[in-house]
Design goal:
The protein is 41% helix and 27% strand. The chain is of the alpha/beta class. The chain folds into 4 domains: 78 residues, Chorismate Mutase Domain, subunit A (Up-down Bundle), CATH 1.20.59; 82 residues, Periplasmic binding protein-like II (D-Maltodextrin-Binding Protein, domain 2, 3-Layer(aba) Sandwich); 74 residues, Periplasmic binding protein-like II (D-Maltodextrin-Binding Protein, domain 2); 91 residues, ACT domain (Alpha-Beta Plaits), CATH 3.30.70.
């Protein structure tokens, strides 16, 4: 019990313990009532979503509508901002992502292929886009993701397409050359944080495992802080974490989620060299995505091997006042030393001005393939 000091005398101060316990009981009672209301409302929402899903199936439309889901995110995040929280936007987004994922699964459980295993960054990107109420299919290579989509074993695939530090992902671009009939129907922009994880002290580390791109994105930090460790490239950051769990003196560069999954300690967090390290993933499928008003279109084209041909093709975008958002060159794998160009730009292929731009561009190209139009994504934290 606390005491009030008054000269040489002390007076006991009654502790507010009983009052606090009473207040806690009342607050918890309020939470219990709100929880019941939330469950009721969530299920009412799911029932309405199921009705919409049945109507879509009757009309031959896909249940999954990323444009509509983006609209829901926008609405709830604006409402959260207007009401001043206190929950952060990321928390609200995750809650509604799982509500929509569960509601979608009432009508159709989608299969999603990704470069595995679990807790690789491709897996985290797939969860971010589709939520947990889908059937995830882990495969061992980017080519296998394309194959699963092409054979209709899955509904969608998630593949990395570029990183802000290392640029293009060559394996993905190569598969677009081989499977041009597949469509980019979405994108995911994931902020990537790398961590050094292990079950030993950092002075004991002799080997650091990770995917080549992850090691590259942390090359300066590793050179400065782990100069005596051998860097070993493996197929994914999650496999690196598994190896670090099994082998004495081993560590991994991996995600926070992978460290939890394999029971590893995070010795150093956010060791990526670039503060704004981000990977963009493409969602591939066999159906075209509808317009949202905030879209991008991706194309792949080959040019004649003539002076000024690239300048002339890019001038088309300037003439039509179309903003380019990405351009990448890639060997054309033809007998001649030619290059293919991957470009994405603002707008949807069904918009008249974008259709005119693509037609004008095709007049400068030896070949042109529209890879797809898709909603423009915002960057989210992993």
């Amino acid at each position: 019990m606390a005491r009030k000091v008054d000269g040489n005398n002390t007076t006991p101060i009654p502790a507010p313990a009983a009052r606090t316990a009473s207040q806690l009981k009342a607050l918890r009672s309020q939470i219990d009532k709100l929880d019941v209301q939330l469950v009721k409302l969530v299920n009412e929402r799911a029932s309405i979503a199921a009705e919409i899903g049945r109507a879509k199936l009757e009309q031959g439309d896909e249940v999954f509508a990323p444009a509509r889901e983006d609209e829901v995110y926008e609405n709830v995040l604006q409402a959260n901002e207007k009401n001043k929280g206190p929950l952060e936007a990321t928390t609200i987004r995750v809650v509604f992502r799982e509500i929509m994922s569960g509601s979608r699964a009432l009508q159709k459980v989608y299969k999603i292929a990704y470069l595995g295993p679990e807790f690789s960054f491709s897996h985290l990107a797939a969860v971010e886009h589709f939520g947990q109420s889908v059937e995830f299919v882990s495969v061992g290579s980017i080519a296998a993701v394309f194959e699963e989509v092409d054979r209709a074993h899955v509904n969608f695939g998630v593949v990395p397409i570029e990183n802000s530090t290392d640029g293009r992902v060559a394996d993905t671009l190569d598969m677009f050359l081989k499977m041009r009939h597949l469509t980019i129907c979405g994108e995911i922009r994931l902020k990537i944080h790398h961590n050094l994880v292990a079950n030993c002290e950092h002075q004991e580390i002799r080997r650091v495992y990770s995917k080549a791109q992850a090691l590259s994105q942390c090359r300066n930090w590793l050179a400065k802080n782990m100069p005596h460790a051998q860097l070993k490239d493996v197929s994914s950051t999650a496999i690196a974490a598994e190896l670090a769990q099994r082998e004495p003196g081993a560590a991994a560069v991996a995600s926070r989620q992978a460290s939890v999954r394999y029971g590893l300690r995070i010795l150093f967090s956010q060791i990526e060299d670039a503060v704004h390290n981000e990977t963009r993933f493409a969602v591939i499928g066999q159906a075209k995505a509808g317009k949202t008003g905030h879209d991008k279109t991706a194309v792949m084209f080959r040019l004649p091997h003539n002076p000024g041909s690239l300048v002339d093709s890019l001038d088309v975008f300037k003439q039509h006042k179309i903003n380019l958002t990405w351009i990448e060159s890639f060997p054309a794998q033809t007998p001649k030393p030619e290059y293919l160009f991957f470009v994405d730009f603002e707008g949807h292929q069904d918009e008249p001005r974008i259709a005119k731009t693509i037609k004008a561009l095709s007049e400068h190209c030896s070949e042109l393939t529209i890879l797809g139009s898709f909603p423009l994504a915002k960057t989210v934290a992993e």
